[in-house]
Write a structure and sequence with these properties.
With 188 residues, the chain is mainly β. It has no helices and 23 strands. Helix content is 0%, strand content 49%. The strands form 4 sheets. Strands 1, 2, 5, 8, 11, 12, 15, 16, 19, 20 and 22 form an 11-stranded parallel β-sheet that branches. A 7-stranded parallel β-sheet has the order 3-6-9-13-17-21-23, with no helix packed on it.
Length: 188
Amino acid sequence: MFALQDKCAGDILNSNFTSNIAEQAGGAHYVNVAPTLTVYGNTYTYNNATTGSAGIFAQSVVLSTFANNHFGSNVGEKGAALFQGSCNATTITNSTFYNNSATTFGGAVFRSLTTGSLADNAFSSNYAGRFGGDVNVTGQSTAFSAALWLCSVCSQHGLARANLSEPSYLCLAASSIHATCMTWCRPQ
C-alpha cells in the first residue's frame, strides 16, 4: 500500500496492486492533501477496504490525472475502484472499470465535491448496494461538476442509477449507455 499525505506530490506509474487489504480507506493507495497526483498505466485488482475505496482513496487533491489504468474486482464501501473527495481539476481517461463492488455508492467511482471529467473509459459489470453502480457523483458545488465523454457503460447498475445531488449535473454527451440510453447535461 502507498500512502501520501500532507501536501506531497506523487506519481504512481506502471505498477500492479493486487490483493491489498485496508481496514479503512485505500486498499492500494491512500492520498490525503496533495498538490498533484498522477496515476498512469497501473492495474488494481482484488483489493479490499472496509470503508472508502479498495483501490485509490484520494481526498483534497488539487490537480490529478488518472490515465490508462485497469480496475477490476475491487471491493469497498464507496467507489470500490476510486474514491475522490474534495478534489479539483481531476481527469480520468482511457481506463477500464470492471466487476468492482461497493456496499453503498459508486461501484467503480465515487466523487464528492470533485470537479473534472471522465473520458474514453469503459465500465462493465460494476455494482453498488445503493446508488451509482458505475459512477456516483454527489455534493457538487460547481455548475459543471462532472463530465462523462465517450465512455462505454455496459452494466445493469450503471449511470442510470447515479446519485446526483443538487446542484449537480452529470453530462453524458457522446457516451454509450447500454443499460439505459439517455443524456443528462447541464441546463443552459
